[in-house]
Amino acid sequence: MLAVLFLIVFGKSIAAFAIVMLRGFPVRTALTVSASLAQIGEFSFILVALGVSLGMLPPEGRDLVLAGAILSITLNPLVFAAIEPIMGWIKARPALAARLERASADELVNAGAVEAGLKDHAIIVGYGRVGEVIGEQLKAQGLDFVVIEEDRRRLEELRRQGLNAIYGDAAAVGVLDAAGVANAKILIVAIPPGMLKRRIIELAREANPAIQTAVRTHRASELAYLKSQGVGFAIMGTREVALGLLGFALTSMGYSDKRAQAVVQEARLSGDGAAFDRELLEATPELREHKEPDGPT
Predict the structure, then answer these.
(1) Helices (DSSP H) in the chain: which residue ranges?
(2) Which stretch of DSSP H or E encloses residue 167?
(3) Residue 112: which pLDDT band, with cuts at 50, 70 and 90?
(4) Predicted model pTM
(5) Left (φ > 0), alpha (ψ -120 to 50) or beta: where does 4 sit?
(6) Where in the chain are the domains?
(7) 101 pLDDT exceeds 70?
(8) Residue 229: per-residue pLDDT
(9) Which of 32, 170, 212, 224 could disulfide-link 272, Cβ–Cβ 3.0 to 4.6 Å?
(10) CB-based contacts of 280: which residues, under 8 Å, 6+ apart?
């Protein structure tokens, strides 16, 4: 029984992982495909029933297949849950990550051309909803930037648009170098939570100690940490959304715009999430709100 379960969960997964990696897809894609195939479903019931009826499979074999199917389906959520820990383990070992995430010459923008042609440019890590807004505005202003993106489809679309785009994980060896980090002015980390932001910043500073950094984060405690590490600017998207909704709620409940803004500003400057806002306010005292009497006006 254990041998059958091992073959279903690990045998199929290892074979799928190898095939997907040989086709040149990212490790995350290979792990996802492997996890999705680490089970056998209801179709196996039909096949084993047919095998038994044709005398090609003994009843004992049918029982093993059915038990293996039930157990593999039960264990599959745990297999999917293991993807992120495995990715973290791989990314914590740059040499292994570099071997697994190997990119062919046509998958990377020519590093020499980027370094020779660009200077004082921006590097945007992650071109999702946040990175795209930044990139569009930089392009509109005629400012140079390079995108680092792990999604191959998005990468191909960026290249069709004529943008400088590097394929790979910014925390992997050589990817930031390919983006010309040594000559870059600013590194903008716009990737989702769970990614190795701190490692990316460390690699960028090793190559270019003078580089500015701007980071998207998702925890107030991380904002305070990034501030203590000398990051130029960090912002927590959910916090900004909450403050915007708070301001609208207050005006809807009878507060004047000025009073609502004062309350929002007070909330903005409180807690760990205010690490960067407090510095901005100290540098620009004209932004300080004048308090009005409490209560709606």
Answers:
(1) 2-6, 12-22, 27-36, 43-53, 59-81, 83-91, 94-100, 111-117, 129-140, 152-160, 175-178, 197-207, 220-228, 237-252, 257-268, 275-283
(2) strand 164-167
(3) very low
(4) 0.60
(5) alpha
(6) 2-91, 108-217, 239-287
(7) no
(8) 78
(9) 224
(10) 287
CA distance 229 to 142: 31
Give the per-residue SS3 of 194-254: CCCHHHHHHHHHHHCCCCEEEEEECCHHHHHHHHHCCCCEEEEHHHHHHHHHHHHHHHHCC
> Domain 108-217 falls in which CATH fold?
Rossmann fold (3.40.50)
Q: In whole angstroms, how far apart are CA 65 and each of 8, 43, 73, 77, 239? A: 10, 11, 12, 20, 51
Question: Residues 213, 261: contact at Cβ < 8 Å?
Answer: no
Residue 215 carries which side chain, given as an amino acid letter?
V
Statement: residue 203 has pLDDT above 50: yes
Structure tokens at 103: 């990119």
Compute the distance between CA of residue 29 and CA of residue 49 in angstroms, rounded to an integer.
Answer: 34
pLDDT over 90 (residue 155):
no
Using CA of residue 96, residue 97, residue 98, residue 102, what is the dihedral sign? positive
Question: Tokens 């490790």, residue?
Answer: 27
Beta strands 233-236 and 186-189 are unpaired
Contact between 145 and 121 under an 8 Å Cβ cutoff? The reply is yes
**Residues 84-103: what's their mean pLDDT?**
72
What residues have CB less than 8 Å from 175, skipping those under 6 apart?
148, 166, 168, 169
**Tokens at 142, concatenated:** 């005629």
Residue 121 confidence (pLDDT) above 90: yes
